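re: ur question from the group chat, yeah i did fold both. here u go
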Amino acid sequence: MNAIELLEHDHRMMKSLLKRALEASAETRREELLDEIRTNLVAHERMEEEVFYPPLEEHAKTHDIVLEGYEEHHVADVILDELLQTEPGSDTWKAKLKVLKESLEHHIEEEEGEMFKKARTIFDDDELARLGEQMAEVRRSAVAG
């Protein structure tokens, strides 16, 4: 799987997890899904920040959107940290999760639109495949703990 395909796969999984967490009514299920979101978000951010973003940051046509991506990761991390300290049965928990979902969906739209389109002009198929292999290894390592 090349780098972009891997990221798109992760995006679909994250959207599904967020939707399921918002729909969950039982507190224990919310906690389980939030833990799964956290694990996958950390792995996804590491893949992007350690492998995918650095070479894109060097190019003028992707520099700014990469910097925005780093900031969007930071915002998601702040919201996630607050969620982890909020009672899962509270209305506040659900509101924070909704904001996290909206923030991540915005991030996904920008990546899959502008960033990935430009990345395809910067990287050839072999480079995308190599980046995908490196990212998959980072993901495995992050999920393993």
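okk and heres the other one u asked abt
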Amino acid sequence: MTGRVGAAPPTLTLVPAPRRGKPPRHLADLAPEARAEAVVAAGEPAYRARQLGTHYFGHLTADPAEMTDLPLRLRDSLAAALLPPLLTPVRTVTADAGTTVKTLWALHDGVRIESVLMRYPDRATLCVSSQAGCGMACPFCATGQLGLTRNLSAAEIVDQVRVAARALRDGEVAGGPGRLSNVVFMGMGEPLANYRAVLDAVRRLVAPVPDGFGMSARGVTVSTVGLVPAIDRLAAEGLPVTLALSLHAPDDELRRELVPITTRWSVDEALDAAHRYAATTGRRVSIEYALIRDVNDHAWRARLLAEKLAERGRGWVHVNPIPLNPTPGSRWTASDPAVAARFVAELRGAGIPTTVRDTRGSDIDGACGQLAAEER
């Protein structure tokens, strides 16, 4: 994510010492019926679960002091049991006149993750992490170079959304009070490698209050480097979210270098799975393509990509070329603008819908994983 203005000084917060073990049980980890069972097990009527859900998903709060419709004697105990703190801010940096906000979070065990909130004139988008680190080992990606630490729980994903939605609602982001309209699983990690937690998180995003935030599924994007079986599994879930396939090369030889995990599935197999997803869900697939100087930005690769997409039909796909956000010390860097423009022209000339990603945050280490890498 690249930006155009200077970064504000970072804010720092002391983080509690790590605690070992799994993330604590949280309301957002549980389906509605399981929430009711947990409340009943605590000796309270089942409807208390709906009250807690209304506060968390509707009022965007986990603070028992704000839950004034609950008896005073219950507020702290129910919050401690089902709304434990999950995210502690470590560092926050801003760019683009305050409309881009990147936060480094510490989880209960001291693990670091990142999220980025980006406000545009017509929408507000949160980029969330689904794993701490990533096991895909893409050499041009800061997160890929960290390796995988662990999967996030559904609640650890969902709480990133709640905090961002509350900040927008309360006018804490430049531009005044607003509403979170889009969530993209394009932060740290490979979302489909943490399939169950990501799916549960998506269900919380789109379920109506008090079961979830009530967001439109069309405002949710799940990215993947191309885990073919998981793409087919997601297509069958009945959730019309957008699929974003991080392709980065149209030929197998280069793609195996850029996305090592894809030695298991060829470019054609990944594109076939993406096409099946579009056919099943009726949702147009996004092809993400990081433009890397003298590596994958050749005009012939644009033509090859266009051919592969067109031979599977029209109207099912959209390409998002992305100027690479280089990481410190990396040999990978963004394409020359003229070369990138020709790449885009080749795609458009072949009739492939193409939009260059409006990226943000290069001056605040906008690429996912950079703040976490600095902490290390």
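fwiw on the second one: Residues 316 and 337 are 28 Å apart (CA to CA). The two ends are 21 Å apart (CA to CA). idk if thats what u expected
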